[in-house]
Request: fold
Amino acid sequence: MVKSLQDTVALPNGVKMPWLGLGVFKVSDGKEAVESVKAAINNGYISIDTAAVYKNEEGVGQGIKESGVSRDKLFITSKVWNGDQGYDSTLAAYQASLDKLGLDYLDLYLIHWPVPSQGKFIETWKAMEKLYKEGKVRAIGVSNFKEHHIDVLLDDAEITPMINQVEFHPHFAQKELRAYCKKHSIQVEAWSPLKQGELLDDPTLTKIGDKYGKSPAQVIIRWDLQSGVVTIPKSTKEHRIIANADVFDFELTAEDMAAIDQMDTGIRAFGDPDKKK
Ligand SMILES: NC(=O)C1=CN([C@@H]2O[C@H](COP(=O)(O)OP(=O)(O)OC[C@H]3O[C@@H](n4cnc5c(N)ncnc54)[C@H](OP(=O)(O)O)[C@@H]3O)[C@@H](O)[C@H]2O)C=CC1
Ligand SMILES: O=C1CO[C@H](CO)[C@@H](O)[C@@H]1O
Reply:
């Protein structure tokens, strides 16, 4: 069982990925990004999830630098945006992300969305494989890929994606996709684990949390970990960044887990990967 903020899951290539990290979607570049990242790292987080489209890679990089924690202790993720898909453009986008972050490698680089209408995710993946084989990134993966996108990718891929970062929260628990990813040794990572704040007064989560003196957010994060899903809740508030990582001193019972599993509506809240342009 996951015991601390520094606990990791071994990806198929042996790279160790932290189970819990900080997401930074909607965190403004500059002071907000710098302070959020510093607050997280100074409170023991070692994983930060950004993306080119979040337009805060410079602030994230500055926060990493100001934290004073050495680069090799951290796990930094970014993603190639839809408009940069394609072989050469992915290589260029990777370098642009590194330059903004002020880093010389990433731990994880993801294709942000499959954008099937563009038909470019195979060539994009070839560029990801090149970056990986050249040792420029420690792990590569995808985001928002459904089973049928991965099936197509695997027909041409030399390297199976190590991660699939997808919408995952108690209202959309992706049971079939998780089983598919497990079969292919692809680690699932949750985005919007707190459903962007929409689940935090849910009565089932509140009742479960009351038993342990934990908030609904903490119950959800614990459910992620006990479900074997890497999670990256976002907050810009230091007290919440700390609270979201205070999840290692309790364990949900099988009954708690089942009650949360039953909250699944099967309806995604934030956009269908087949329709994303
Ligand atoms: N690959 C993809 O397509 C996507 C990836 N992501 C990644 O996943 C991360 C997490 O998802 P995100 O969409 O940000 O949403 P989350 O589900 O993490 O929710 C974030 C919201 O919850 C609030 N919040 C956080 N902790 C608490 C708490 N303890 N109590 C009360 N409110 C809280 C935050 O507010 P406040 O900041 O004010 O605390 C914010 O409004 C992103 O930041 C990003 O890194 C997200 C979307 C898509
Ligand atoms: O990670 C994400 C958040 O930002 C993007 C758009 O602004 C989303 O499309 C994406 O899923």
User: Anything to note?
Assistant: Residues 25, 51, 53 surround 1,5-anhydro-D-fructose (ligand 2) (CB under 6 Å). Residues 87-101 form the longest helix (15 residues).
